[in-house]
């Protein structure tokens, strides 16, 4: 199973929960981290909004985004989350240093200083 992220829940999403119904007759309730018009993000998956059913919990005031996902769809949602995380990590460690070839013109002042020090 995918490890949960440590990303902080934004205040506007604190009252939102994702209820994912599994094939085995069990369900998982997860905190919603963020969502937009197309994607709902939880700590373990990124789910498409087109397949959701939204219900309001009158007792606690939560908005439940309900998904009835088969196993391949759940695995794909988890893989999408992992792909997003790995591409973000790649972006963090991808330093575009722009390595340049050896530039003799840039070292010319240093060469002149060294030659002056030697032949003084």
Concise structural overview:
Keywords: Membrane, Transmembrane, Transmembrane helix. The chain is an alpha+beta fold and 120 residues long.
What does this structure look like?
It is a single chain. With 120 residues, the protein is α+β, with helices and mostly antiparallel strands. The chain has one domain (1-87). It contains two helices and six strands; from the N terminus they run ββββββαα. It has helices spanning 71-93, 104-118; strands at 16-21, 27-35, 39-42, 46-48, 53-56, 63-68. Strands 4-3-2-1-6-5 form a six-stranded mixed sheet. The longest helix has 23 residues, at 71-93. The chain is rod-shaped and about 90 Å long. The mean pLDDT is 82. The chain crosses the membrane at residues 102-119.
């Amino acid at each position: 199973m995918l490890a949960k992220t440590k990303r902080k829940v934004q205040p506007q999403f604190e009252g939102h929960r994702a209820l994912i119904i599994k094939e085995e007759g069990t369900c998982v309730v997860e905190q919603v981290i963020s969502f937009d018009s197309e994607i709902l993000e939880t700590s373990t998956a990124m789910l498409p909004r087109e397949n959701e059913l939204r219900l309001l919990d009158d007792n606690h005031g939560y908005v439940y985004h309900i998904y009835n996902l088969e196993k391949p769809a759940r695995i794909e949602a988890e893989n999408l989350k992992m792909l997003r995380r790995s591409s973000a990590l790649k972006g963090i460690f991808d330093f575009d240093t722009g390595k340049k070839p050896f530039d003799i013109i840039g070292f010319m002042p240093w060469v002149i200083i060294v030659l002056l020090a030697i032949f003084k």
